[in-house]
Amino acid sequence: PTGIRAPPRDANRYRGRVSTQQNGRVALVTGTSRGIGAAIAADLLAAGYRVAGTSRTGTAPEGVLGIAADITEPDQVDAAYRRVEDEIGPVEVLVANAGITRDGLLAMMKDEAWDDVIGTNLSGAFRTVRRAVRPMTRARFGRIVLIGSVSAYVGTPGQVNYAASKAGLIGMARSVAGELGSRGITCNVVAPGFVRTDMTDELSDEVRADYLKRIPLRRAAEVGDVAAAVRFLCSDEAGYITGVVLPVDGGIGMGR
Ligand code: NDP
After folding, report:
1. Nearest atom of ligand 1 to the alpha carbon of 57
2. 106-132, pLDDT tens digit by residue?
3. Do residues 47 and 15 touch, judged by C-beta distance below 8 A?
4. Domains of the chain, with CATH numbers?
């Protein structure tokens, strides 16, 4: 009587159907040598995608086509795409995940720390997305997910460069969404909060304890929490969702 349909009883059968639909789509993930990017690549592979992964070292999880490419170098980005196109086909799903931090208080922040972070996190994502869109436009299908951060909208003292780079990704995603929606291409941001990776292992115990106190779910995210959200936005089923920021932050940003 409510008109709301119950979820399918046999959840496994439902999952099976979804993953079959993704079968064979080509996904490219940047920053797959460790952390969140490695988890996203492995997760998409398990869901039936053919996956390529880039990083400066070129390492990627087993079964993923690993390619060495520095996203600050336009030629290397182009060469990586050509290799993916030659070996597994044109990229239909792009996850721009590679990113760095160079933390420090504003008054002491060197130009180099600003330039490195903007050059990798924002300009690197720009180059990666720019190279993706022509083949996606031709295919009339594309899924682009940019890995942002809650820092973009809550701000993080000591991370002026990083927060600015991640805020830039939101403007980029929404502009891409507007430009290319008519071609069947979606572009969204997944914004993790505090995730246990090498990047956050660098934080002091004090900073880590302070973060945990402020997270309603009282734990750091595991990389799989982020990968699951990314997988959803990459799926065919998410085809009517574009220009959104999906926080995966244990509630610390309360939906912002
Ligand atoms: P890691 O430092 O563990 O991994 C970063 C990845 O990016 C590595 O694979 C690294 O590979 C790659 N990378 C860095 N610079 C370049 C470059 N110039 N060209 C190509 N690849 C590069 O970070 P996380 O896994 O923690 O973070 C992944 C993403 O998630 C980042 O964008 C980060 O900002 C974001 N994020 C992380 C959070 C966290 O709590 N950990 C919270 C919110 C967002 P290599 O060194 O081999 O090049």
Report:
1. 47
2. 999 999 999 999 999 999 999 999 999
3. no
4. 22-248 (3.40.50.720)
Q: What pLDDT shows up at residue 3?
A: 52
Q: What is the DSSP string of 59-100?
A: ---TTSEEEE--TT-HHHHHHHHHHHHHHT-S-SEEEE----
d(CA 87, ligand 1 centre) in Å? 25
Whether 221 is in the pocket of ligand 1, judged by its Cβ within 6 Å, is no
**DSSP result, 158-204:** T-HHHHHHHHHHHHHHHHHHHHHGGGTEEEEEEEE-SB-SHHHHTS-
Clarify whether 162 is annotated catalytic: yes
| pTM for this predicted structure | 0.92
- For residue 221, the ligand 1 atom closest to its alpha carbon is 40
Contact between 90 and 135 under an 8 Å Cβ cutoff? The reply is: yes
Q: What's the gap in Å between 197 CA and the centre of ligand 1?
A: 9
Tokens of 205: 């115990």
10-34: average pLDDT:
67
Distance 161 CA to ligand 1 centre (A): 15
The reply to whether ligand 1 has any atom less than 6 angstroms from the CB of 200 is yes
